[in-house]
Amino acid sequence: MGNFRDLSLESGYDSDTDDIVNEFYLPVLSNSKSYDRITGFFRSSSFAISSKGLAQLISNNGTMRIVCSPILGTDDVEILSKYSDNSHEFNEHVSMCLDKFMTDDFFDDEYTEALGWMLSKGFLEIRLVIMRDADGNLLTAEEIDKSGIFHSKIGIFTDLEDNIISFSGSVNETFSGWVSNVEDFDVFCSWKDGGLAHITRHQEKFNKYWKLGEHYRSSTVTLPEAIKQAWIKKVPSDRSQLRLLKKTKKSFLRDYQKEAIKGWKENAYRGIFNMATGTGKTITALYAAKDLITNSKEKIVLIVAVPFQHLIKDPWLSSLREHLLPNPNEDVIIEAFGDSKKWYAIGTTCAADYHVDVIKSIAFITTYDTLFTEKFVSLVDKFKGKKLLIADEVHNAGADIYRTGLRDGYDYRLGLSATPGRYLDDEGTSYLYNYFDKDVFTFSLRKAIKTINPDTGQTYLTPYNYHPIFVSLMPDELEKYAEFSKKISIAMPNAENPTPRELEYYHRLLVERSRITKNAAQKLEKFISLIPEFKQADIFNHCLVYCSDGRDSEDHTLKTIQRVVRELNANGISNNRFTSGENIQARSTILNDFANGAVSTLVAIKCLDEGVDVPATRNAIIMASTGNPREYIQRRGRILRRAEGKESAELYDFVIIPSSKTPTKDEKQIFQSEYKRFREFSDLSSNKDENNVIIDKIIREYDIGDILNDSIE
């Protein structure tokens, strides 16, 4: 069970635009120790849609108190009216009114069973509110509904830390209330400004109706004992026998992964899985391949392409062996990268064995650098039959140099990426989608952070807090930036018919200018000054520090990394570099040391952006960022994977703001670019409200709101 403060919650939800069950109800209920609810009408079927949350609440030993109005007809009201002055007889006839609903169908679902078990163990208590009009006459359900007397519904959740969330609005505790109807409600949190006042009012209202006896225009009674006992008799005494818990036990493939595979199959085994980092793209792809290979009447040659060599062994080689090709004697996996002499010879031998069924299955794991080479193509062609290409981090495959690797001869095609579109490369993006066809499944980061995993009762990805660290360019850096801006303006290519040389020169100028902001001197100095504070707050525990990448001058990159490492060492913080300078074996050792805590901080560059699985990471400090959304989205993704004991993550990001209250045109342009990244990081963070206050103050102080419309769009 987590902490409400780690959840990413909105101030209100509308079913027209929000998935109110998965984004609000399930995450909150799954992390609750208690749930108090006033609702108009109560049916056990309301919990059909929240089965996963209810199962987790049961596992939490959580409690529920429900105040609701029973569904009374005209005949029920007439009977009850006769006994208004006799509480014993009145309660007996309430029981008789409810008894007609207690049919075999009522008891024949897992949700009613779970609620009955909670009743039997004292985890659930239900009280009934009998509504009256102004003259004291009892009302039927239809009259209550028409009058709107009981239309204001509230719910109050409490977690183990005594954080409280309440909501109020039109939503009923029914299946249609949470799913089918158009509903909206406001959400209040005890730790946010103004939230506690609303929560206190809701608690007072709940307590008023919860109190037994007569109230103005209502009376409250307990759930009749006969109804309670009839309910309890129908349920198992052992919690482990509850059908609801059995149903929500861990299944290997999650529902959304099955949906992804289904979408790929229905699109003739072609398409892209557009899935957020940490949501299981690799496993989903392997089981998609397994489905195809199992159901195919002929052999399928599998080709997996990755952007970096270190991704070949982990995750792909180990995952292929575990989930798809377990028998080394019959299932051959060839690692094809680097010097072709070894893998080409092995592959040639395997081709002969493959055709006489000595080898049952064949798979190649290669890099994009090798995929398009003549040697690799000729080797794959030795294996007759249909071929399946799985392109990991598929956005890389759209680069001009790699496109020839996407061959027409690959019958089945599956691309994987959290960010399939190519930055500033519409042609490359178009080429990818022409080849793979379309996104057959999308699982966004927003959904992954807000949706509960039924296996764990937590969201699929770890909620995070975002901490912008504001710095400015120095005068000499601003001067250089302005010089490049002038050159860029002059060098802007002819829009109708630019030459390759013009484009290359223009792009080089853009890159050179971006390095000025990426490597701003204040970033390093500010980082060094924050080391003692970060150490005190334990930020360097399982932390990634991102420096400039290899596309900057080697001299600058080396100096930055060396300075960061030297300062960390001087402050007694165990660390290691993770760069292209380390070989595959060294990288594996470094990652293992990092995972088990032998090394607390990794100082990294670009090679940690894609595909490297480091779920132990709890904190990231981004000192250098390009304008490429894919890069900074992937860097955030490194800290969001779930790990044991990891309830939340922290993201620190150096953001450049103007150096004076009268910013230059270039400074405004820089901030416009920085603001896009700020918004991307802040909007899904748990502390976005706090960040909005901070950034709004900066925008007002520097009078730069006019240039942000394009960024927001």
Which short descriptors sum up this protein?
single chain; globular; Endonuclease, Chain A; Rossmann fold; seven-stranded parallel beta sheet
Q: Could you please describe the fold and organization of this structure?
A:
The chain is α/β, with parallel strands linked by helices and 713 residues long. It has four domains: 4-235, 2-Layer Sandwich (Endonuclease, Chain A); 255-443, P-loop containing nucleotide triphosphate hydrolases (Rossmann fold, 3-Layer(aba) Sandwich); 464-473 and 520-702, P-loop containing nucleotide triphosphate hydrolases (Rossmann fold), CATH 3.40.50.300; 474-519. The chain has 28 helices and 24 strands. A nine-stranded mixed beta sheet has the order 1-7-6-5-2-3-4-9-8, sandwiched between helices. A seven-stranded parallel beta sheet has the order 12-13-11-14-15-10-16, with helices on both faces. A hairpin with a 5-residue loop joins strand 5 (153-158) and strand 6 (164-169). Helix 3 (74-81) runs antiparallel to helix 4 (87-99). The protein is globular and about 95 Å long. 41% of the residues are buried.
